[in-house]
Design brief:
Length: 504
């Protein structure tokens, strides 16, 4: 069976774009399909095919532009002649899939539905499968869409193989674990598959199966994960429930083997570990770091974690193994809000962590959010004050979106802040989201705009940029100066385009 796995376009349709990344989840599924005798390809429709597309990086764009760009995304869904839809049509004609699998988030429901319709226009007999966070938690709502034939809930690798086998051999779909499907006007939910116990047994993501490989930069985008799952109970996040409240970690040997493969195949010298909280298991992380040192793979790396999961000895080991940047999920500066959202990390722990990371010479970034339903102006002020106090190398600021599968989503429905059956193709997401009970809309917008404008100025200061990049620059200067020159040239070219677009 020929299977086309698609990450739907989103930021590309907004015209803001983002750094191209390899979709690891689809890479794992493609590898398992390939190993079981199926033809598979990965189409990352987020990646622009041509450099002529006016794609501007998020970090260079103001908050107001982001709001306009979301409405541009909504408009693109209605524009049947949009160049991205033409590209999707051409890709379908070229690849000729029997089944199209789409992995999506809630924010991508509109574009995923559009892609699904294009699949049915291309060939009404081509099967459409949805997977990922949104359809896993809102399965019935997804299958009520006539264009969607199947949903796989949760971990998708081996259920995808079983589904292809069932379609090919015309065996009962009821034998495919974790599959939901339609039969005689009813939605059927098969029993859930047990999580894969030993994640070392999953083949490495099939990066070689991407279509349009020229749109990827594997040398600087060696993305990986070392674990699946998160044990923490943050109420705004659905990751814990998606992974069935379990954490599974790869062995150090397996991780080093994939890094070597990336180096040998693509010349990768920089790894991004995309785990929810990289340092969940201290003993295992120490083994990873020691393996990176002993194996002499000589890569630099960055990742994200929590402020209460690091200390000075661990940071020393991480630096020695090549860590150049850590991103910390702070969320709020209000202790009251953090208690409500079950973010069990105090401001004192956060300040100590940022200070320690900076002391060790590691670049540090912080993720913040505003707009939680119970938030007040005083809570927002606490968040803004903490942002300024941390003196981080990079700060990210988002507006709360109620995500299916999270406790906050259920709470928003119970309190009437979100409709019981919302239209996900016209849902107000960040930055236009507003689910706050205690602040008037105008006051909320004014305050978060003030924070966003301050943040824009802060992140774009030369001293801030130098702070977040100096250790990576030093690493590249020492190990790959040609690569550094290319990166600087690309950055300057991009800035020239940004200024040209801004003045036009």
């Amino acid at each position: 069976m020929r299977v086309l796995l698609i990450r739907p376009p989103y930021t590309r349709l907004k015209g803001v774009g983002q750094s191209p990344y390899f979709p690891l989840g689809l890479g794992y599924i493609a590898a398992v399909l390939r190993d079981n005798g199926h033809e598979a390809a990965i189409y990352h429709a987020e990646n622009p095919k041509s450099k002529d597309e006016c794609v501007l990086p998020d970090a260079d764009i103001t908050f107001n532009f982001r709001s306009k760009s979301y409405h541009r995304y909504l408009e693109s869904l209605k524009d049947d002649n949009h160049f991205v839809w033409a590209e999707v049509r051409q890709t379908l004609r070229d690849y000729k899939p029997d089944l199209v699998g789409i992995s999506l988030l809630s924010v991508e429901v509109g574009s995923s539905l559009k892609v699904s319709r294009l699949v049915k226009e291309y060939n009404p007999d081509c099967h459409v499968l949805w997977g990922g966070l949104h359809p896993s938690f809102l399965t019935d709502e997804s299958l009520k869409l006539p264009e969607v034939d199947f949903v796989i809930r949760g971990e998708g690798e081996y259920s995808s193989v079983e589904l292809c086998k069932a379609i090919t051999e015309r065996t009962p779909l009821s034998q495919v674990e974790s599959l939901s499907f339609k039969e005689n006007g009813k939605i059927i939910h098969n029993p859930v598959r047990r999580a894969i116990e030993n994640v070392d047994n999953i083949p490495f993501p099939a990066r070689e199966l991407v279509l349009y490989p020229e749109t990827f930069d594997f040398k600087s985008l060696g993305s990986m994960i070392v674990s699946r799952g998160c044990p923490f109970r943050c109420t705004f996040c659905s990751s814990r429930n998606f992974w069935d409240k379990k954490v599974r970690m790869r062995s150090p040997e397996n991780v080093i083997k994939e890094i070597r493969l990336l180096k040998e195949t693509y010349g990768t010298n920089f790894i991004m570990f995309w785990d929810d909280s990289f340092t969940i298991n201290r003993k295992v992380i120490e083994k990873y770091c020691n393996s990176l040192i002993d194996s002499k793979v000589n890569v630099s790396w960055k990742t994200a974690t929590r402020a209460d999961l690091i200390d000075e000895p661990l940071l020393d080991l991480m630096v020695k193994s090549g860590c150049v940047k850590l991103e910390i999920g702070v969320e709020s500066g209000s202790e009251r809000i953090k208690k409500i959202i079950s973010k069990d990390v105090s401001n004192e722990q956060i300040k100590k962590a940022f200070s320690l990371i900076s002391k060790k010479g590691i670049g540090v970034g912080g993720f913040f959010m505003a707009g939680f339903p119970d938030e007040t102006l005083e809570d927002l002020e606490d968040t803004f004050n903490l942002m300024k106090e941390l003196k981080a190398g990079e700060l990210a600021f988002n507006i709360f979106d109620p995500m299916p599968g999270s406790t906050e989503y259920d709470k928003c429905i119970a309190e009437g802040l979100v409709a019981k059956d919302p239209d996900w193709t016209n849902f107000l997401f960040w930055p236009d989201a507003y689910y706050v009970k205690n602040i008037k809309r105008e006051e909320f917008d004014n305050y978060v705009n003030m924070i966003a404008k301050w943040l824009y100025d802060y992140n774009n200061k030369f001293t801030t940029k130098l702070k977040r990049s100096k250790h990576l620059i030093y690493y590249m200067l020492k190990n790959d100066p040609v690569f550094l020159v290319n990166k600087v040239f690309k950055y300057l070219t991009r800035r020239k385009r940004v200024h040209a677009a801004g003045s036009s």
